[in-house]
């Protein structure tokens, strides 16, 4: 598969890049080097132009910033919404039949929570682009090594997650903490899936993908 990929330097993206490059032809678009064998660098506004002339089968986004990095709502939305949707449209124009994107559990354009509302609008806009297949991943709290990029509340959440997970059963399981490595492996499993439509993967579905032969 010819894959266009954004978010390759993030928690999920770093692990996913290794999995994808082992089996596919991957082009990474980014703002800083990712270590990918093939990449093009530029601002997020330049990414659509960087795909001109490329042939793409699958578009993958694990892109996401933090409030600490963004500094304001407009900068946050520029990455988490505008960059993802702009990339997706450019990938579709380059021939992509499948889009795979990491969102968030609870994403809803009508949410009173600004973050979840933004994620919901991203999902809505991706649906409207018209990919033959759209895979949206909505994991719970991601567990993994972020290096220096760790938020205090997130650290506390991870510390108590083993106890909290015990209480999150049934429908509440979707909010449980999940290893970022598991999400990365599940993402790799759906690359090139032939059946069409929109597929939303929450924690239970993610774990199910890992258990499939």
In which order are the strands of the major sheet placed? 3-2-1-4-5-6-9
Helix and strand string, N-terminal first?
EHEEHEHHEHEEHEHEH
Provide a count of the helices: 8
Global morphology: globular
Tell me about the largest β-sheet.
7 strands, parallel
Give the % helix: 40-55%
Strand content: 15-25%
- Averaged pLDDT: 88
Poorly predicted runs: 152-168
The tally of strands reads 9
Distance between the amino and carboxyl termini: 20 Å
Radius of gyration based on Cα positions: 16 Å
- Structural class computed from helices and strand pairing: alpha/beta
Overview of the structural elements:
The chain is of the alpha/beta class. The chain contains eight helices and nine strands. Strands 3-2-1-4-5-6-9 form a seven-stranded parallel beta sheet, with helices on both faces. It has a two-stranded parallel sheet with strand order 7-8. Strand 1, helix 1 (11-21) and strand 2 (25-30) form a beta-alpha-beta unit. Helix 7 crosses helix 8. The longest helix is centred in the middle third of the chain and has 21 residues, at 73-93. The protein starts with a strand and ends with a helix.
Describe the secondary structure blueprint for this structure.
Elements: E1 2-6, H1 11-21, E2 25-30, E3 39-41, H2 47-50, E4 58-61, H3 67-70, H4 73-93, E5 98-102, H5 114-129, E6 133-137, E7 142-143, H6 152-167, E8 178-179, H7 180-190, E9 197-201, H8 203-211
Structure summary:
The chain contains eight helices and nine strands. It has helices at residues 11-21, 47-50, 67-70, 73-93, 114-129, 152-167, 180-190, 203-211; strands spanning 2-6, 25-30, 39-41, 58-61, 98-102, 133-137, 142-143, 178-179, 197-201. The strands form two sheets. Strands 3-2-1-4-5-6-9 form a seven-stranded parallel beta sheet, sandwiched between helices. A two-stranded parallel sheet has the order 7-8.
């Amino acid at each position: 598969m010819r894959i266009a990929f954004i978010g390759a330097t993030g928690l999920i993206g770093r692990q996913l890049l290794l999995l994808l490059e082992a089996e596919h032809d991957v082009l990474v678009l980014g703002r800083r080097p990712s270590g990918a064998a093939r990449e093009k660098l530029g601002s997020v506004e330049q990414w659509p132009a960087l795909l001109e002339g490329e042939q793409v089968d699958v578009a993958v986004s694990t892109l996401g910033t933090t409030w600490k990095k963004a500094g304001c709502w407009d900068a946050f939305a520029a990455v988490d919404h505008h960059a993802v949707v702009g990339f997706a449209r450019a990938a579709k124009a380059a021939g992509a039949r499948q889009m795979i994107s990491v969102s968030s559990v609870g994403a809803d354009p009508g949410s009173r929570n600004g973050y979840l509302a933004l994620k919901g609008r991203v999902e809505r806009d991706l649906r409207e682009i018209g990919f033959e297949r759209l895979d949206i991943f909505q994991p719970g709290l991601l567990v993994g090594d972020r290096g220096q990029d760790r938020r205090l509340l997130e650290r506390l959440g991870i510390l108590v997650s083993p106890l909290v997970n015990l209480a999150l059963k049934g429908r509440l399981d979707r909010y449980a903490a999940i290893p970022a490595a598991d999400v990365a492996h599940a993402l790799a499993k759906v690359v090139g899936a032939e059946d069409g439509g929109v597929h939303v993967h929450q924690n239970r579905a993610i774990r199910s993908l890992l258990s499939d032969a």
